[in-house]
Design goal:
Elements lengths: L2 E8 L5 H14 L4 E6 L6 H8 L4 E4 L8 H15 L3 E4 L8 H12 L4 E3 L3 E5 H7 L6 H12 L2 E5 L6 H14 L4 E4 L8 H9 L13 H9 L1 E11 L4 E2 H13 L7 E10 L2 E8 L2 E9 L2 E2 L2 E11 L2 H15 L6 E8 L12
Parallel strand pairs: 1-4, 1-5, 1-6, 2-3, 2-4, 6-7, 7-8
Antiparallel strand pairs: 9-15, 9-16, 10-14, 11-12, 11-15, 12-13
Helix pairs in contact: 6-9, 10-11
């Protein structure tokens, strides 16, 4: 029996991890065995830690996007299949990644036709960001997000609860003008609007059928390189109790204060301890909280992981994140287990099939 491969892409902060982990939990509750593969330009990924804290069978491909690390993607997929026999594997590519039809979907269909059934490529579009920033090809960010939209087979218009219905209808028209073949699902993680339709696509027998879209790899590389990429994990001793929510808010607030709101593509904090695991995310000044286990109070030894994707020189970003941590942890010595800060290298796909 083929394993169903479900790829859900979209720009940073669109809500991919929240949706994927909810789908995985609901499928698991319904008796469907699910595996998750996360992806990042570096390791120490908040999303993988969060999925694992939820008790989900998850792993990651680090050090580059799925397209550049296609053998690693398939290695992780094969290990999941061999170790836990999932019926569905859900894959979340790096938020700045595009051209997935040519570099991931097409190779999957060409080289693993008996092993995997590839679902239609789903791309999440943040409704609030789309209204405020549009899909202007003339900006680096807009070029990348527009190409993601152009190659989508199913568009998940997320955060619908944050915008008005007239704006939603206008966005649907814009999406139809850019990609008339795509199915658009209006979705809200808060109200669950559209969630059932997304779940139906995941559980269906529908497969990816669209061909790749043209892309200028020089512009794509420049768009990715515009972002500074920070991943860091440090050890912490929370003693008798520290409020994880207050700590996360302080760290995210300190980072946000250093940059214009629109320059922060996404910032995340994961606090884990003997008593709890909490993830907090900030996109365009809005903070969301996901409690994986326990309460908001962290106790005993633990870790703090920070991921930040910001329009910034990497050196400046690293200094600002460290200052944010020092401000949130006054008098504490920062003991890093791992820290990386860089701008992504130009994408060099392992396969590109047109």
């Amino acid at each position: 029996m083929k394993v169903r491969m479900v790829i859900i892409g979209g720009f940073l902060g669109a809500g991919k991890t929240t949706l994927i982990t909810r789908l995985a939990r609901d499928l698991k509750d319904a008796g469907v065995n699910v595996g998750i593969i996360m992806n990042d330009q570096a390791d120490t990924l908040v999303d993988t830690q969060y999925a694992q804290a939820l008790g989900l069978n998850s792993c990651e491909v680090a050090g580059g996007c799925f397209c550049c690390r296609f053998p690693d993607l398939m290695g992780q997929a094969e290990r999941l299949v061999e170790s836990s026999r999932p019926q569905v594997v859900m894959a979340e590519p790096v938020g700045s990644c595009t051209d997935l039809l040519a570099t991931v979907v097409a190779p999957l269909k060409a080289f693993y036709p008996e092993r995997f059934q590839v679902a239609p490529l789903m791309v999440m579009v943040d409704a609030e960001r789309a209204i405020q920033e549009g899909f202007d090809r003339q900006t680096l960010n807009g070029y990348l997000r527009r190409h993601q939209l152009e190659e989508a087979e199913v568009v998940i218009l997320s955060k619908a609860d944050l915008v008005g219905r007239e704006d939603i209808e206008r966005l649907k028209g814009t999406i139809a003008g850019i990609n008339p073949r795509a199915i658009t699902i209006v979705y809200s993680a808060v109200s669950s609007e559209g969630y059932g339709k997304v779940l139906d696509v995941v559980r269906s027998e529908e497969v990816s059928e669209n061909g790749p879209k043209e892309i200028d790899y020089a512009v794509y590389a420049e768009a990715e390189a515009e972002l500074g990429w920070y991943n860091g994990t440090l050890r912490a001793d929370f003693g008798e109790g520290v409020d994880s929510h207050a700590l996360g808010m302080a760290i995210l607030g300190n980072i946000s204060s250093q940059y214009p709101m629109e320059d922060i593509a996404h910032a995340k904090v994961m606090v884990t301890s003997l008593s709890n695991a909490m993830k907090m995310s900030c996109v365009r000044g809005r903070v969301t909280v996901d409690l994986a286990r326990g309460s908001r109070i962290a106790r005993g030894p633990g870790r703090i992981t920070v991921n930040a994707r910001v329009v910034s020189d990497p050196g400046r970003l690293k200094g600002n994140v460290r200052a944010a941590l020092e401000g949130a942890l006054p008098g504490k010595r920062l003991e890093f287990e791992r820290e990386d800060c860089f701008s992504p290298a130009p994408p060099k796909p392992f396969h590109r099939m047109t």
